[in-house]
Specification:
single chain; alpha/beta; six-stranded mixed β-sheet; two-stranded antiparallel sheet; 16 helices
């Protein structure tokens, strides 16, 4: 929920940073022209300015510099600003180098980014002053109280306390507790209607009720609240019925409750970001790694054993639909590949295959699966059809992992749950991690998992065989 203050603050922050970014570029340009480049102007000056601005806006969006969550705390604004500045510096430096502007870069970058850092630090100081002084004195935050004292009410209270620059949380109304303030206990009234009278006398402007009144009482409550210019909002309490993080969306004016939060399902922009990243990353690996590595691996596989270079197997994909999953062949050709998992000391694994499996190189052909749209870089690992049938009957939440595209690597794998699953408990742990990933997805989580995968490859894994 975004207030007018939050909206205008975010808008001001974006516009202010736009001016700072372009002023810093101007400083760098003037220093270059009059003190370091004999008055010469780069041929692609307008393109550089455009790339400089688009790079900042794109990175700021990816790092959520201007999101509602970030601007709620000064420390968060400063942290994300530094991340954006450093990332942008690396990005623009690489751009200048590949544009054959190395001499331009050596003279321009220190002046530009020195100015940008100084101005952003000054901007953060101004923001701190405004949020600590002006906001409090102007009383732009809204006094709020909560009816009820259940788990939903406590979560809501924590949100108000964290966002104290927007909300002034006054306490709880509850028939069992009378009235509990944020600081001490005081006696209050009894029913929701009486709470409104108490709120009016104490300048509380918004009441969030986690206790839903009976239908006949609802109109009367709203009528009384309107008389005192107090907004009453009702919050459904599912703390006893739903154990996961449920999500509320709207179709027109009809509230729709999902039993879990799914960032990739509930925001099309997240799906687009993930797909763009998948395609770009896959193309990079295919063009710059597999283009020369595949012939070498193919030769080694052929020299050791008869059979195809690539191994394909039907596995369970998104929405429980099967697809052909590709790998470099790491075993001798056998009739058990679709029913028996690889195990430690498996006689079917060749010497070349053992190296491929240990280093995860056998998974590289799955980048073609990603490019085709059957898989993602990061997601739950695809299982054999037989295992899906077997474990879905034993683990109640097993099929929930199929809401996502399967991945080359995943949250379960980087946390040690990869390879052979000897018992149901190990598979249950893997499923638990897959569902956590689904409910907590972010672009940065994918990057973290990729880095953890690379680290594990060099460090070695006990379950990689």
């Amino acid at each position: 929920m975004e207030t007018r203050y939050s909206y205008f603050f975010r808008l001001g922050l974006v516009l202010g940073d736009f001016c700072i970014v372009n002023f810093s570029y101007l400083i760098g340009y003037l220093v270059l022209r009059y003190w370091g480049n004999n008055g010469q102007v780069p041929d692609n000056l307008l393109s550089q300015i455009l790339i400089f601005n688009l790079g900042w806006l794109t990175l700021a969006s990816v790092l959520k510099l201007y999101s509602r969550e970030t601007i709620s705390k000064v420390e968060q604004i400063f942290r994300q600003t530094i991340k954006t500045l450093l990332t942008h510096g690396v990005f623009f430096t690489v751009f200048l180098i590949y544009s054959n502007e190395k001499h331009f870069a050596l003279r321009f970058l220190p002046a530009c980014y020195g100015s940008l850092l100084s101005l952003l630090v000054l901007r953060s100081i101004v923001i701190t002053y405004l949020m600590d002084k002006f906001v409090k004195r102007a009383k732009l935050h809204t006094k709020t109280a909560i009816v009820g004292h259940n788990q939903t009410a406590l979560r809501l209270a924590r949100y108000f306390i964290v966002n104290r620059n927007t909300y002034s949380f006054e306490g709880f109304f509850d028939s069992r507790l009378d009235y509990v303030t944020a600081d001490d206990d005081r006696k209050g009234e009894g029913q929701i209607e009486k709470y409104i009278h108490f709120a009016a006398a104490n300048d509380i402007r918004e009441i969030y009720s986690t206790i839903l009144p009976e239908k006949q009482q609802l109109n009367r409550i709203i009528e009384v609240a309107d008389q005192y210019c107090i907004r009453v909002k009702f919050v459904p309490d599912f703390s006893g019925a739903l154990q996961s993080n449920y999500h509320i969306d709207y179709l027109d004016a009809v509230p729709i409750i999902s039993i879990r939060t799914e960032p990739l399902q509930q925001d099309i922009r997240n799906q687009i970001k993930k797909r763009i990243f998948d395609v770009a990353f896959s193309l990079f690996v295919i063009l710059f790694v597999m283009s020369w590595l595949t012939p070498l691996i193919a030769l080694l596989i052929k020299l050791e054993s008869r059979g195809p270079v690539f191994f394909r197997q039907s596995r369970t994909g998104k929405d429980n639909l099967p697809f052909w999953c590709y790998k470099f062949r790491s075993m001798t050709v056998n009739n058990d590949s679709d029913s028996v998992q690889a195990s430690r000391g498996d006689h079917r694994i060749t010497r070349v295959g053992a190296f491929l499996r240990k280093s995860n190189i056998d998974e590289l052909p799955q980048f073609f699966n990603v490019l085709a749209g059957d898989m993602s870089i990061v997601g739950p690992r695809p299982h054999m059809l037989k295992h899906t049938e077997q474990y879905s009957a034993l683990i109640s939440k097993y099929m929930a992992r199929q809401f996502l595209k399967p991945g080359i690597t995943g949250w379960a794998q980087v946390n040690g749950y990869r390879g052979e699953t000897k018992d149901t408990e190990l598979m249950a742990k893997r499923v638990e991690h897959d569902i956590w990933y689904m409910e907590n997805w972010s672009w940065w989580l994918d990057i973290r998992i990729i880095f953890m995968t690379i680290i594990n490859v060099f460090r070695g894994e006990d379950n990689a065989f």
